[in-house]
Each structure stands twice: as structure tokens, then as C-alpha cells.
Design goal:
268 residues, mainly alpha, rod-shaped
């Protein structure tokens, strides 16, 4: 009993949390030991200006916001790859249009079992929904106490329920891309403001302005702006790309369900 209860009470760590922790750790280490390597700076001192044309040193001068922006960038790239693989699997093996046509043709000839076998070969979200609906199709076929209208409603309800089960898997982690598209811009803006504060502080010195501090402040502002905008742009493009793919899959699911309902109505 104690073992069972301990298993039920165990904390399940979600993939996004793991990705964020790992990428943040990598970003901090990379910022400190790679971008902050003394070899990237004049006099081998990270406090000095970067060597001419040394982009690692320039990025390091972006300040403490840079590791956070690097983390966001890596999170975006990680979930872009994850969603690309997931949606490619959700699409299935064959062409969806041809699959729907073949299923429609088979069930119009009362070959429901063959249509279900076709779903096993096709795989993917559309095939999963069609398979579930075809099982319901078989069940209502054997039901003698239901009217035609009741059977059609039952099949249509199965389409809606099966679709509702598939959609969360398709849209998983997209909210992260949408959130980062806004956060990255704000983080970049924060870094820009901090850099400009340093730049104006250098100008405010009595006598001659501190040119080194002025250059460091401007560099910090520009580096954070560039990384923030770049990360946000990637997140927005990826989000729109994946939502378009999901919309196409959703439309295919709706079309497949409508075809099955219509075919049943025509055959009965």
C-alpha cells in the first residue's frame, strides 16, 4: 500500500521544464566559458574591449541578459524540431487526400474491415480518428434498436470526440513558441535599456566621457536587441508554420468524418 501511494504521489516532470533547465544551464556555461574566454578580449581580460571582429567577445559584452536570451533561443529551436517531428508523424505515411478517398470508396462498398486495415497502414492523427469512427460505424450497424437518425448522431458524436482527443497532441508545446515570441522581444528591450543606461552614465562623467564604458553600453544595447528580435522572429515564423499544418490536419479530419457520415446516410 505504501509503495502504491508513493508512486501515485510522485512528481511528474514535464518536458518543457526539463528543456528550460537544461538550455539555461548550457547558456550560462557557454556565456561564461566560451563567449567570456579571455582570449576573445584585448589583453586577455574580459573587462577590456573585444578583439576586432571577435563576435564571441561582442556577444559577451551584451551583459547578463544574454544568457537568458540564449536560453530562449535554444528552447525555441528545441521545440521547433520536436513539433516538426511530431506533426510529420501525425500526418501519417501516405497522402491524406488519397487516404480519405480510399476509405470513402471502401465503406461505400461495405468493406469496413478493409478500411480499418488501411488506417493501420496509414497511421497518424487522421487515421486514428477514422479508425475510431469506423469502429463506431460497425457498432451502429449491428444495433437493431436505433433509428437511422440516432445512428448518424452517434457516428457524428464519435467524430467529435475522437477529434477532441487528437487536437491536444497536435497543439502541444505551441503555447511555448507563442509565449517566447513576446518574451524574447521584451527581454531584448530590457537588455537594450540596461545598455543605454550604462552608455548615458559614461557620458555623464565629469570631464571627458569614458569611451570604454560608452562603447560597452552601446554594445550591450545592440547585442540584446539583435538576439531578442532574432529569437522572436524564429518563434513567430515557427508558430505560424505549425498552426497552418495543424489547421490542414484538422480540416482533413473533419472531411474524413463528414465523408463517413455521408456515406452511411447514402447507404442506409
Amino acid at each position: 500500500m505504501n509503495q502504491k501511494s508513493s508512486k501515485k504521489g510522485s512528481i511528474k516532470i514535464e518536458l518543457p521544464a526539463i528543456v528550460i533547465v537544461v538550455t539555461l544551464t548550457i547558456a550560462i556555461l557557454a556565456y561564461k566559458f566560451i563567449f567570456g574566454d579571455p582570449a576573445n578580449f584585448m589583453g586577455s581580460d574580459p573587462e577590456n574591449q573585444p578583439l576586432p571582429g571577435n563576435y564571441f567577445g561582442i556577444i559577451y559584452k551584451g551583459g547578463p541578459i544574454v544568457p537568458l536570451l540564449m536560453c530562449l533561443n535554444m528552447v525555441v529551436l528545441t521545440f521547433v524540431v520536436e513539433r516538426f517531428i511530431a506533426l510529420r508523424k501525425a500526418k501519417g505515411k501516405g497522402t491524406i487526400i488519397n487516404f480519405i478517398k480510399d476509405v470513402r470508396n471502401l465503406i461505400s462498398h461495405n468493406k469496413v474491415n478493409q478500411a480499418m486495415d488501411l488506417c493501420d497502414k496509414q497511421k497518424g492523427s487522421v487515421a486514428n480518428v477514422v479508425f475510431s469512427v469506423l469502429k463506431k460505424y460497425e457498432e451502429v450497424e449491428k444495433e437493431q434498436n436505433m433509428s437511422k437518425e440516432q445512428k448518424l448522431v452517434s457516428i457524428q458524436k464519435e467524430v467529435e470526440e475522437a477529434t477532441a482527443l487528437e487536437l491536444p497532441g497536435l497543439e502541444q508545446n505551441l503555447v511555448i513558441l507563442a509565449t517566447i515570441s513576446s518574451i524574447a522581444t521584451l527581454m531584448g528591450l530590457l537588455g537594450t535599456v540596461l545598455g543605454m543606461i550604462r552608455a548615458f552614465a559614461a557620458l555623464a562623467n565629469a570631464g571627458a566621457p569614458d569611451s570604454v564604458a560608452l562603447a560597452a553600453g552601446i554594445s550591450e544595447a545592440l547585442v540584446n536587441t539583435a538576439i531578442g528580435i532574432g529569437t522572436a522572429a524564429i518563434a513567430i515564423i515557427a508558430y505560424n508554420f505549425f498552426t497552418t499544418k495543424i489547421d490542414k490536419l484538422t480540416y482533413a479530419i473533419d472531411e474524413a468524418g463528414f465523408s463517413i457520415v455521408q456515406t452511411y446516410s447514402a447507404n442506409h
